[in-house]
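Appendix B. One record, verbatim.
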Amino acid sequence: MKLQKIPDGLWVFAGGGAGAFMRAVLTEIFPQTFLHLPVAVLCINVLGAFLLGCLLRFLAVSGQDAGWRKATRLGVGTGVMGGFTTYSSFAVGAVSIATSGSVAAAFMYVSASIILGFLACFLGQIIGEKLGFTSKNSQNGIKIRGVR
């Protein structure tokens, strides 16, 4: 079956299941909380922001959103990373911390999640751009750092 014949939603569905499974495995392996903060969710969301930023920038720089790039964006970007990261668990964790009497800790958790997620995504995009630019140029036969 060619990539063009597989419905877009199927890529997202398959990737979403894989991403949710990876998150479930990681939350079983690693401690849920540290100093009463949901660090497993924080780490998963920050890692997901980095990977998604890297992937989407790589795909954008390396060519048109068609064929394998579109399938990768939908399956891995929307699907896997969407299933892997979790806004709802982040929100529930923040509210749980706040209602347990530690509004300052909840504010720290929310701030750390947003700031670290932003920085991770920004770094991922820088790396993704370099990888995508290198990939695109090497496909066009342009010599990069002495390698063809």
